[in-house]
Structures are given as structure tokens and as C-alpha cells.
Amino acid sequence: MQLHVQALISQGPGVARIVLSDPDSTEASMSVGFLSSLTVLAAEATASGSLFDQLAARFRAGKGGMYPIAICGVIALAIIIERIVVLFFSAPINKDGFLRGLKKHIYAGDLDKAINYVAGQKNTPLTQVVKAGLMNVPKGEDEVQAALDEASLRETPKLEARTGYLAMLGNAAMLAGLLGTVNGLIQCFEAVAHVNPADKATILSQGISEAMNCTFFGLLIAIPALIMFSVLNGRTQSLINDINEASVSVLNLVVNNKDKFKNMNISSRDDE
Question: Per-domain residue ranges for the chain?
Fold first, then answer.
């Protein structure tokens, strides 16, 4: 059986329509379907390339007003990457599993093993706070509380660092885009004031289109920056809550099991 396949190229690059003259052939249909998939992928690749070309053209059209927006975007991107690495990979630890392992040594009354257990864990703000509290167990529960509070005040700023700048950079990018648009409109209206009246509409429309590119890119930077500010801020608060909860748990463990520690003289206000 002879198969006739006709490819009709429609308007637009990379867009093709396959017409099969013998629809009863299953093998031919599969072949045409494969060709159609390749055509669609080629069209998507072409569209993707044209998108970046359009963005580059719009950036160039915005002229000098684009540079403050670009600076805000680069700084915001650097902060986002650094904060994601810290808050989602370096700082987190399985709090519940960590406390379960610590309780075994506390219940056994072995402070040295408890400290070694904490020191052998992943180096995170939470483990540093707990370690500071355990190191002061021989001095009494008041000193343990003070050490936990001090360590929390030292470690918490490390989690909160630089995240607040994202909100500022997002607002700055949006305002810089607005400033670039206003400046472009001013130059546009000044330019049409001394041209042929027949050309005013064309020049004015082109100028406004170019000026609006600043607002477009300002919003393009501001929206992701503000979204990531909220996401990272929420993650930071979650880690801080874990530190506070672990601090209270460790203090309660020390107080409730002070009689189990071997060769330790732990004083408390109740004993005075």
C-alpha cells in the first residue's frame, strides 16, 4: 500500500501541519505523529529563543533607565541564592530526631555523652544553642537558661541576615522602573514638540512604548523579589521557632533529670 504524506507549512516559523492521505494505516499514523511531535518541539524552541530576543530588545529600548533595575535584580538574585542555601540546606536539622537522641543520654545521666552527641551533629544554629546550654549544666539551671538565651541571641541574626533587603530591592526596582518611564515620557513629549504634526502620533506611540519597558522590567524584578522575601521570611521564622522550642525542651530535661547526672553538683534556686 502506497502512502502519501503532504506537509503544509502554515504562517509562522517552525509550524507545520501533516496531512495523511491514507488514514487506515496505523504504522503511517505513528510515523506522522512522531513527525508532528518533532515539529511542535521545534516550534517551542523557536518561540523560546524569540522570547529572550524580545526581552533583550526591550532592555535595550529602555536605555539608561534599565541599569538601576538591573543592579537591583543582580543583588536580589545573589541574596536569594545565598539565603536558599543557608535556610534550606545548611541551617535545618531534624529537631525531633535530634532531641530524641539527646534525651537518651540525659535520661542515662551521662552529660559527657550528651555533649559529644550534640557536637557530632550537623553544625547548625540549633545545635550550637543546645551545646551552649549543656556546657553550663554544672553551673546550675540559671546559668543554663542564661547560656541558652545568649546563644539564641547570637545565632538568630545569622538566620535573619539579608532577607529584609529583598523587600527593599523589590520596591527599589519598581520605583526605578517608574522613574525610568516618567523620564522617558518627558523626553518623548519634548521630542514631538518640534516635529512635523503628521509624524507626532507615530513618534509619540514609539516613545511611550519604549518608556513603558522600564516599568515592565521593574515589575519583572520586584514581583519575584517580594515573593521570595515572604518565602524566606517564613522559613526563617520556622527555624527560629525550632530553636526556641529546643531551648525550652533542653532546659526542662536538665531540670527534671538533674539528680541523674553522674558526679555533678547542679544547684538550683529551690535548693537554696
Answer: 5-56, 65-272
